[in-house]
Design a protein that fits this description.
It contains four helices and 17 strands. It is of the alpha+beta class.
């Protein structure tokens, strides 16, 4: 084989390896926001539901007919699942401790210390009014650093049910599929199931067991009580816009929207979005004057979210960014086109 031919084949091999590395990097990210296992801190989160204290101005007139179906309150009333606690056994005579005995004792000591930690301060989660959007599909440029792909967010409400799907691809290869499905209740979007599938990985699921009043997962054995208004790592995007559409006062600079958000890795956190600005956003359909909401991290490596929602398009995101930790590269969606009849 000539030296030139060997050099050409070597360059081709390097290019293919680089492409595969990029695809794997995208699939490892996901537009699901980082999902950390925080089951050990679940007991530290306490939530109260409070009714809004003041009347809210109606949303501006729209040519679209809002789609809203309400599930009976009896179906969505949270029932707190009771988790049995381990009972300490009385001491028994035993030979000198072996290494496994020492490890078991250390684990028991750590568990006792964790249970003795004081609970976090209560977080008030209001029951907001909502106005969910009609069917729509938004197509984005998906980017992290120098890597680029495409994403589509398709919202399909039908009667008292909905499906929300996010598809992400790079170079024509699907790297991410997330699906949230469920219905509606007095607090707005009410998920029943959330699935998250990545390239070269299995599908993870989060189940909102409304009759039992709990949230369970296909992988982790942890459970959470199901509180009204809790969203998954995809449905929050619609819920945030539905609240802003119905609650005019929450579009003011300095306003705050708070909700519980749960992922597929057995994690649940309180997400508080602050309305920080009205900013122009360059998109594939022109410049959009959007409301900017920011969710600041509550601890190191927690998820920071910035999202720009468009009043002219049912307060859905025209741009969104997330990162986990100061050294993380931001992951971004930026609107390219809209289909009002998906």
């Amino acid at each position: 084989m000539h030296a030139a031919s060997r050099k050409w084949l070597g360059l081709c091999g390097v290019g293919v390896a680089a492409l595969m590395a990029h695809l794997l990097l995208f699939s490892g990210l996901g537009w699901a926001w980082p999902q950390r296992a925080v089951a050990a801190r679940a007991s530290a989160v306490q939530v109260r539901v409070v009714e809004p204290a003041v009347a809210v101005a109606p949303v501006e007139a729209s040519t679209e007919v809002p789609i809203r179906a309400v599930v009976p309150a009896a179906v969505v009333k949270p029932i707190v699942a009771k988790v049995a606690k381990a009972v300490a056994m009385p001491p028994q005579a035993a030979p000198a401790a072996t290494m496994p005995d020492v490890l078991v004792a250390a684990a028991a000591s750590a568990a006792a210390a964790a249970s003795a930690m004081p609970p976090a301060a209560d977080v008030a989660i209001p029951r907001y009014r909502t106005q969910v959007p009609p069917p729509i599909a938004l197509r984005y440029v998906m980017q992290r650093g120098g890597l680029r792909g495409t994403g589509e967010l398709a919202w399909k409400p039908l009667g008292d049910h909905y499906e929300l799907r996010l598809e992400g691809s790079v170079a024509g290869l699907s790297v991410l599929t997330q699906v949230s499905s469920g219905g509606f209740d007095a607090a707005g979007v009410a998920p029943l199931r959330f699935t998250d599938q990545r390239l070269r990985r299995g599908t993870k699921a989060t189940n909102f067991q409304r009759a039992a009043g709990k949230i369970t997962f296909s992988g982790p054995s942890v459970e959470f009580p199901l509180h009204e208004g809790t969203q998954d790592r995809l449905s929050w995007m619609v819920q945030l816009g539905a609240i802003a559409a119905a609650e005019a006062s929450l579009r003011d600079i300095g306003a705050k929207i708070v909700m519980n958000v749960v992922g597929s890795n057995g994690d649940l956190s309180v997400w508080a979005f602050d309305c920080t600005a009205i900013e122009p956003v360059e998109t594939g359909i022109g410049t959009v004057n959007a409301l900017k909401f920011v969710r600041e991290p509550r601890e190191p490596y927690d998820t920071q979210v910035q999202v720009w929602i468009d009043p002219a398009r049912h307060f859905l995101p025209v741009r969104a960014m997330q990162k986990s930790g100061s050294g993380d590269e931001a992951f971004e969606l930026r609107l390219q086109s809209v289909d009002n009849n998906p």
